[in-house]
Amino acid sequence: QVQLVESGGGSVQAGGSLRLSCSVSGYRGSMYCLAWFRQAPGKEREEVAGIRRDGTTNYAESVKGRFTISKDNAKNTLYLQMNSLKPEDTAMYYCAAHDFSFLSCAATWANFPHRGQGTQVTVSS
88: which DSSP letter? Predict the structure, then answer.
Protein backbone atom coordinates (compact mmCIF):
# COMPACT_ATOMS: atom_id res chain seq x y z
CA GLN A 1 0.00 0.00 0.00
CA VAL A 2 1.38 3.36 -1.02
CA GLN A 3 1.82 5.80 1.84
CA LEU A 4 2.71 9.47 1.69
CA VAL A 5 3.65 11.33 4.86
CA GLU A 6 4.25 15.08 4.89
CA SER A 7 6.38 17.04 7.34
CA GLY A 8 7.94 20.46 7.68
CA GLY A 9 4.91 22.67 8.04
CA GLY A 10 4.73 25.41 10.62
CA SER A 11 4.26 29.10 11.26
CA VAL A 12 6.44 31.74 9.70
CA GLN A 13 6.35 35.48 9.11
CA ALA A 14 5.79 36.94 5.68
CA GLY A 15 8.99 36.87 3.66
CA GLY A 16 10.23 33.78 5.43
CA SER A 17 10.93 30.27 4.13
CA LEU A 18 9.87 26.72 4.83
CA ARG A 19 10.74 23.38 3.31
CA LEU A 20 8.13 20.67 3.18
CA SER A 21 9.02 17.01 2.82
CA CYS A 22 6.94 14.05 1.75
CA SER A 23 8.13 10.51 2.35
CA VAL A 24 6.77 7.99 -0.16
CA SER A 25 6.70 4.29 0.70
CA GLY A 26 5.05 1.08 -0.41
CA TYR A 27 5.77 1.52 -4.12
CA ARG A 28 8.45 -0.17 -6.18
CA GLY A 29 10.17 2.19 -8.57
CA SER A 30 9.15 5.80 -9.00
CA MET A 31 5.76 7.33 -9.59
CA TYR A 32 5.11 9.09 -12.89
CA CYS A 33 4.01 12.26 -11.13
CA LEU A 34 4.49 13.64 -7.63
CA ALA A 35 2.78 16.86 -6.69
CA TRP A 36 2.00 19.33 -3.94
CA PHE A 37 -1.51 20.64 -3.44
CA ARG A 38 -2.85 23.14 -0.94
CA GLN A 39 -6.22 24.08 0.42
CA ALA A 40 -7.00 27.25 2.33
CA PRO A 41 -10.16 27.59 4.43
CA GLY A 42 -13.15 28.25 2.22
CA LYS A 43 -11.18 27.71 -0.99
CA GLU A 44 -10.83 24.87 -3.43
CA ARG A 45 -7.81 22.60 -3.32
CA GLU A 46 -5.27 23.65 -5.93
CA GLU A 47 -2.10 22.12 -7.29
CA VAL A 48 0.94 24.13 -6.34
CA ALA A 49 3.63 22.20 -8.20
CA GLY A 50 4.29 18.86 -9.85
CA ILE A 51 7.35 16.91 -10.87
CA ARG A 52 7.46 14.07 -13.35
CA ARG A 53 9.55 10.94 -13.34
CA ASP A 54 11.93 12.59 -15.82
CA GLY A 55 12.37 15.58 -13.51
CA THR A 56 10.37 18.11 -15.47
CA THR A 57 8.24 20.41 -13.35
CA ASN A 58 5.15 22.57 -13.44
CA TYR A 59 4.06 25.36 -11.09
CA ALA A 60 0.97 27.37 -10.36
CA GLU A 61 1.37 30.98 -11.48
CA SER A 62 0.94 32.20 -7.93
CA VAL A 63 4.10 30.46 -6.73
CA LYS A 64 6.41 30.66 -9.74
CA GLY A 65 9.78 32.09 -8.78
CA ARG A 66 9.14 31.53 -5.07
CA PHE A 67 8.56 27.78 -4.68
CA THR A 68 10.75 24.94 -5.93
CA ILE A 69 9.66 21.31 -6.14
CA SER A 70 12.30 18.59 -6.12
CA LYS A 71 12.70 14.92 -5.30
CA ASP A 72 15.34 12.56 -4.04
CA ASN A 73 14.72 9.19 -5.66
CA ALA A 74 17.26 7.43 -3.44
CA LYS A 75 15.39 8.61 -0.35
CA ASN A 76 11.91 8.31 -1.90
CA THR A 77 11.24 11.84 -0.73
CA LEU A 78 9.52 14.79 -2.34
CA TYR A 79 10.30 18.36 -1.30
CA LEU A 80 8.79 21.80 -1.65
CA GLN A 81 11.08 24.71 -0.90
CA MET A 82 8.96 27.77 -0.22
CA ASN A 83 10.62 31.18 -0.17
CA SER A 84 9.25 34.71 0.09
CA LEU A 85 6.14 33.36 1.75
CA LYS A 86 3.00 35.49 1.78
CA PRO A 87 -0.05 35.39 4.05
CA GLU A 88 -2.06 34.09 1.10
CA ASP A 89 0.16 30.97 1.08
CA THR A 90 -1.46 29.94 4.35
CA ALA A 91 -3.10 26.57 3.79
CA MET A 92 -2.96 22.88 4.46
CA TYR A 93 -0.40 21.41 2.09
CA TYR A 94 -0.72 17.88 0.73
CA CYS A 95 1.53 15.69 -1.32
CA ALA A 96 0.00 13.37 -3.87
CA ALA A 97 1.09 10.91 -6.53
CA HIS A 98 -0.17 9.10 -9.59
CA ASP A 99 1.45 6.65 -11.95
CA PHE A 100 -0.58 7.34 -15.10
CA SER A 101 1.72 8.38 -17.93
CA PHE A 102 -1.34 9.30 -20.03
CA LEU A 103 -2.36 11.94 -17.48
CA SER A 104 -0.84 15.36 -17.08
CA CYS A 105 1.15 16.07 -13.96
CA ALA A 106 -0.72 19.38 -13.83
CA ALA A 107 -3.96 17.69 -12.92
CA THR A 108 -6.82 17.93 -10.50
CA TRP A 109 -6.86 16.29 -7.09
CA ALA A 110 -9.24 13.62 -8.32
CA ASN A 111 -6.56 12.23 -10.63
CA PHE A 112 -4.18 11.50 -7.79
CA PRO A 113 -5.11 8.23 -6.05
CA HIS A 114 -2.25 8.40 -3.56
CA ARG A 115 -2.47 11.24 -1.03
CA GLY A 116 -0.94 12.34 2.22
CA GLN A 117 -2.72 13.66 5.29
CA GLY A 118 -1.39 17.17 4.98
CA THR A 119 0.79 19.59 6.90
CA GLN A 120 -0.29 23.08 7.93
CA VAL A 121 1.55 26.18 6.76
CA THR A 122 0.65 29.49 8.37
CA VAL A 123 2.17 32.76 7.20
CA SER A 124 1.59 35.85 9.31
CA SER A 125 1.90 39.42 8.11
Answer: G
Question: CA–CA separation, 31 vs 121, rounded Å?
Answer: 25
Distance in Å from the first CA to the final CA of the chain = 40
Q: In this structure, is the dihedral angle defined by the CA atoms of residues 113, 111, 87 and 83, taken in order, positive or negative?
A: positive
Average per-residue pLDDT in the chain? Answer: 95
Order of strands across the sheet that contains 3-7: 3-7, 18-25, 77-82, 67-72
pLDDT at 39: 98
* 15-62 confidence digits (pLDDT tens): 999 999 999 998 877 889 999 999 999 999 999 999 999 999 999 999
Long-range contacts of 21-25 (CB under 8 A, 24+ apart): 21/77, 21/78, 21/79, 22/77, 22/78, 22/79, 22/80, 22/95, 22/116, 23/75, 23/76, 23/77, 24/76, 24/77, 24/78, 24/95, 24/97, 25/76
